[in-house]
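Hello again, I could really use a second opinion on something today. I've dropped the whole record in just underneath, so have a look.
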Amino acid sequence: MTEKEEKYFLVRSDILPESMKKTIEAKELIERGKVDSVFEAVKRVDLSRSAFYKYKDAVFPFQAMVKERMITLFFHLEDQAGSLSQLLATVAQAGGNILTIHQTIPLHGKANVTISLNTVAMNIEIEKLIQKLKSLDFVDKVEILSSGA
């Protein structure tokens, strides 16, 4: 069996059918956590569930298609055994592909780490990854140094 080739087109939103626009709105409500279910999302945008399921894997906002691919994060860490390993594991669990790592020599119980990663295969949003990293008990601060393709 051969795989069906997918082709994409960039289409101006004012010529899209209303059900496709509402599908994008419903997906955004779900992604942002504004609703708890597909049922609630389609009800809010006045769309049938069948139309949502018909288009949900076929229409995307343009920004989602040109998603940034690389990001550089700067961390202020407490110097604890295994902390870098746990930090890297958290990034890996999110699907981030680590490209570079730089760690300073710990001084006064603190260390700085800079990580560049490719985000193409990530299974969560960058904001959620940063929240997860900030919640690690040895992470004092996380900063985005740069992002871009």
About this structure: The longest strand covers residues 139-148.
